């Protein structure tokens, strides 16, 4: 999936040619995997329902399938014979069951010829077995970084750490959670006291050593709604898929093949594949309540989890209290107090400002980004125009050689008038009975993203069912001029299908169709001359700018009440991959019918970003077992990067499709998480439970009585200013004149180190640092005084940073966010 062919520089070729005489002997052979256009055996006749009335798929063991397999092998041999020099290659074997292609042992120059050959989609050099987890371990540098730190690898990453997941449960039979008796766990988790509950689809054997505890919490759900016994299982079993996805992203086993609809997408791994999993089911397909969530958090703390992962939570701030004092946030504060690292999704309400649902400084709020991996799909029209789209499906039969009849759903509607003339029937392909079977059979049908999709009554599942039932060759879901662009995410389709969310591209398709379709005076289509083919959409592309903050990812600034009064805490805290993440799923898929039957799903959300940070925190905790949660949070923050893979400032997606803007700390927090950097940050900023209480007591919006009511703690100490909470960031939400902020650093390195202090002042301010440099011994403490002075009033927040550069190559970054209100106090 991530492999790129490696070619030696031309000058090296020249040197070898001179000494040896010819390139064939000069070049070193390598293994290459080649993917071809055309259906493999598993999809031949199976990517669409046959025209038989009983609706059964064609038998893979039939003579038809065997003949197709032979044709594939013959085509591979013919391609090699025609494209490559004799004796320059050895074909190892043909891929014909789940992908169409072959493996070949040849030289780089011969591989280049394969790339140019007709019918070849991808030529990838085999770089050895490696993890791709949803690709994110590779993207974050884990295989060559954090996993190899101190001589380890994926087979030890996370040993001895228990990660708790408050979510929708877990699918215990998934290979991501299997126990390998040949590779027993060696890490000591005697501190963990969890146990297992059983119930429907969750026998006692589900707790197998990888899953070390599993409980469910349903009192709130049962009180709030009538549960559906067919999906709302009163057991830790995950009927949704979300909990399994989150758990496998953080701590799923290494090297698990991701196969969906017979297609191999790579291998999956969690960030900390040897960490143990503790399950606390608190959300059900029918309903989820904070009552159950808070109860689950409480149990997780009692059991002794090291990391608490919260990809669930309220969508809105509390109505009758400040954000920091809700039961949910106080439960997280209690977890911090117990020494548990808490990581929380910031929400999916972006890109609007102050849309975060992670408020408190004692929980690490995670924003979402994409990676440089995409799944480009395309449509080829009969006039040669190629249109881009989205859809994880195989190509239409004979792609590259055959085009198929193109039919607009409106023009295939039955004329008998026995059904409503509403968009779901006539435009959106929701009801097979509305369409003329003879017209749509073996055709590519254009469905329209109309009213039903906007009000939530129409689904892609219904389109797929219609396509299978009527024998579509494929389908295209196009944007509607009446509504404009829509947002589309790749979903695996069992029939060739593609989404075209861009209105301009949709209109190109529709205009071509109208030009080629003959209609009578009343507008009824009489002849369909438009042709099209849907291309392969399952092959990943690795290019482009990355990371980019996801459109849906909630933004700061953080706020303290329902009036959204900004407060002096940075949110989000950190950025991690959360867009188009492959991970484990539940075949029940009660909330997403389109994914029913799948063991893996490609999902997006800050829910998907959060377990990345949870798994990385487990690696940090494993390597530094004595560190407190605030030290781990500090290490993750101060070593993050604000630059993308091109060395440019990370961009953020805006409200318009395709629109981006230079991001700020309110988009990505401290920046993209860096696992290797977090293991060895040089300095950390420690913060204790008492400091959080002092912070609460210093907020003008909160009375001492309210703090005591919520936490049980008196306000015996306050901070000079809320911004003096010792966080790895500085936020001043209303700066008048100047303010001195203090930060205390602890040297967690093994040697003395000298640090030089510098600052990039936010617009409208100037920052002075004292001292300008310091030398700090191992385990030493250093206080830094930071004076932020307004030089010009601004009408919004501005952003900068403090950078401490160490003599042993440690770099500590502190993001600074300031709203300069006035020059004078």
TrEMBL record:
Domain spans labelled Peptidase S8/S53: 158-647
Keyword field contains Hydrolase: yes
Keywords from the named record: Glycoprotein, Hydrolase, Protease, Secreted, Serine protease, Signal
Source organism, top-level taxon: Eukaryota
Domain Inhibitor I9, first and last residues per copy: 65-131
InterPro entries: Peptidase_S8/S53_dom, Peptidase_S8/S53_dom_sf, Peptidase_S8_Asp-AS, Peptidase_S8_His-AS, Peptidase_S8_Ser-AS, Peptidase_S8_subtilisin-rel, Peptidases_S8_3, S8pro/Inhibitor_I9
GO biological process: proteolysis
Subcellular location: Secreted
A GO CC term attached to the entry: extracellular region
Major location (coarse): secreted
Pfam families documented for this protein: fn3_6, Inhibitor_I9, Peptidase_S8
Signal peptide bounds: 1-25
GO molecular function terms noted in the UniProt entry: serine-type endopeptidase activity
Catalytic-site annotation from UniProt: 167, 242, 607
CDD domains reported for this sequence: PA_subtilisin_like, Peptidases_S8_3
Subtilisin-like protease fibronectin type-III domain location: 724-818
Similarity comment: family membership: Belongs to the peptidase S8 family.
Name of the molecule in the record: Subtilisin-like protease SBT2.4
